[in-house]
Structures are given as C-alpha cells and as structure tokens.
Amino acid sequence: MDSMSQKVRKAVFPAAGLGTRFLPATKASPKEMLCLVDKPLIQYGVEEAVNSGIQNVIIVTGRGKSSMEDHFDVSYELEQLLASKKKTEMRRLVRAISELAEISYIRQKEALGLGHAVHRAKDLVGNESFAVVLSDDIIASKTPCIQQLVDVHDTYGASVLALMEVPKDQISAYGVVEAEPVEDSARPDSLFRIRNMVEKPKAEDAPSNLAIIGRYVLTSDIFASVESIEPGAGGEIQLTDAMKHMMQNRPIYGLKFEGKRYDAGDKAGFLKATVEFALERQDLGPQFREYLKGLAL
Ligand code: G1P
Q1: Which of 20, 60, 83, 8 is closest to 234 using CA atoms?
Q2: Which numbered atom of ligand 1 lies nearest the CA of 233?
Q3: Nearest CA among 165, 168, 163 for reference residue 149
Q4: What is the reported pLDDT for 6?
Q5: Bridge-partner residues for 191, per DSSP?
Q6: Statement: the pTM of the whole predicted model exceeds 0.85
Q7: pLDDT score for 19
Q8: Which of 18, 111, 129, 186 is such that its CA lies 20 to 30 A from the CA of 31?
Q9: 89 CA distance to ligand 1 centroid (A)?
Q10: Which atom of ligand 1 is nearest to the CA of 17?
C-alpha cells in the first residue's frame, strides 16, 4: 500500500514508561491511569484519536500496566451492578469506554527509549502512515490536535509533528527543531518545514524555541530509520533521532497547533490541567469556582 495517499487509521500510544516524574503515585499504577477530574490521561488521548478519525489504537505497554487494559475492556460486574441500581447513564458511560476504538496491546519489555517503543508497533502498523500520541501531553483544542496534523499530512503526503514555543529555561526538556516557515494560506504562520532537530539540547545549544509536543503523524519508513540509529540522549533510542534520519530522504513538517497543551506528566502541569478542566465542567465547574473564590490566596 502507498503510505502517502492513505487515510491515517492507526495511532500508537507508547505507555511502557516508569513515570518517575510522578512518584510516589506511579509506584504501582501506570501514569497513563492518573485521573484528570474523573478520566485517566490515556482516555483523553484515545478520545482525541477517535475524534480525529482513527479506528485502531495500539498501546505499547510494560509490566504493571494491566489496569489500562481493564479500563478499555468490558466490565460485566460493574455494568450489572449499575443496571440493577437503575444507573442507566453511568452504565452507558462505562460501556462506551470499551467501545471507543479497536485496541491492541504490545509489550515493550525494556524501556529503551521512545523510538524503540514506537518501533514495537511496526508489525501492527504495517506500511501506512500512523499517529503517535504521548498521553501525558494533554491538549485542549477546538479541532483535535491529531486531526490538525492529519490534515497537514493529507495535504503534503509527509510526516508532521506538533510544535509549541517554549521558554528558554524549559527547552532542554524537549526535542527542539530548526525550521523555516511554509507559506500556506490555510495555516498562516503556523506551518514549518523542519531542517534539523535535536533531542533535549542544552538551552545554549537549542536551535530555536520550537519544541516537539507529543503528537506526531509519521510515514511508515520511520521504522527503518529507528533500526538505523544508535542510542542518543540519555542512552535511549530516540524518536527525534529517527525522524532526523528519515529527513535525509523525506521532508518533515511541523505545525504550531491551535490549542492549549498541559504537561500532565509533571505535577504542576497536572494540577493546572485538573483545575482548568474542572472549571470547564458543567456539573462541577460552578461549585468549584465558588470554592476557589473562597480560598484565602
Ligand atoms: C518526549 C520526546 C521529546 C518531546 C516530548 C514532548 O520526551 O522525546 O522529543 O519534546 O516527549 O512531551 P519525554 O517527555 O518523554 O522525555
């Protein structure tokens, strides 16, 4: 199949990481299952993928992550209980999670890096373009961020990454790109052609303030590129290095996406997202707002 002219149907969710930034919460439970208000992080990502037209979700898991599989499975006991208590709406909500997408799981036995994690999905993805979603990046936007990237992929037939401007004192936590703007009337001032990229540079070595955020649409030749590279930053097989390798043969684009991103893998970012998402909720927002107003801050 020609990966260029094809609809993006699959999304890979690397989820085998140890979540050390969020200890002790992540000692025995996956960071992907941390709850923003009342929904685990990974469900936000899966919903974003589904709302972007994706049908197949591939979760790359590791040891101690089985609660994710249970979350997306049918829970007969729970549904029976909710039915017997006539909690119809809650039962519908619980059932809908198991019907969100076709989900496959594959293990990453050792945490050897993001590039390595994505490569674990090679056989399940096959020869077609696919999305990658890092579920600790939560993005609130009018058009789902993945959909924004898919639109660029469909226009240019190329890989595309989500980009965001980041202050200099934080830039070394990211993959950083050197890029030049592309004239595109549908995406004024937001589309770039990537010229170089570097994973977690020192602030003084960063090629720009444009950081890669955890949403990608990649052509399937990324797998061969992962196979061609050596371990990079942190001794890990980095996705950024694989993309840089792929760029020798194929253009890669970057999109400053519309929307607000929260780093929910970080404790402060997670708290901000929790407060803002709770305020947005019709059922919780008004009373929560009153509560916050009453705090002597
Ligand atoms: C990963 C990527 C990095 C990217 C970041 C976005 O890093 O390797 O290029 O900028 O996600 O969240 P991590 O945060 O897993 O260290």
Answers
A1: 20
A2: 8
A3: 163
A4: 72
A5: 255
A6: yes
A7: 87
A8: 129
A9: 37
A10: 15
CA distances from 53 to 36, 60, 131, 288 (A): 24, 20, 11, 33
Of 134, 196, 229, 256, best ligand 1 pocket probe by most atoms within 8 Å of the beta carbon = 134
Average pLDDT for the chain: 95
- Cβ–Cβ under 8 Å, residues 32 and 60: no
Query: Is-contact 178 194, C-beta < 8 A?
Result: yes
CA 216/CA 155 separation, integer angstroms: 15
The ligand 1 atom nearest the CA atom of 199: 9
Ligand 1 is surrounded, with C-beta below 6 A, by 114, 134, 137, 174-175, 199, 211-214, 238-240
Q: How far is the CA of 165 from the centre of ligand 1 (A)?
A: 14
Q: In this structure, which CATH number among 3.40.50.300, 3.40.30.10, 3.90.550.10, 2.60.20.10 belongs to the domain 3-265?
A: 3.90.550.10
Q: What is the pLDDT of residues 5-56, one digit of tens each?
A: 578 999 999 999 888 999 999 999 999 999 999 999 999 999 999 999 999 9
Nearest CA to ligand 1 atom 13: 174
Q: How confident is the model at residue 185 (pLDDT cuts 50, 70, 90)?
A: confident
CA–centroid distance, residue 88 to ligand 1 (Å): 40
What is residue 1's predicted lDDT score, i.e. its pLDDT? Answer: 44
Is 3 a residue whose pLDDT tops 50?
no
Cα–Cα distance measured from residue 237 to residue 252, given in angstroms and rounded to the nearest whole number:
19
| pLDDT value, residue 5 | 53
Structure tokens at 192: 């770039």
- Torsional class of 42: left (φ above 0), alpha (ψ -120 to 50), beta (otherwise): alpha
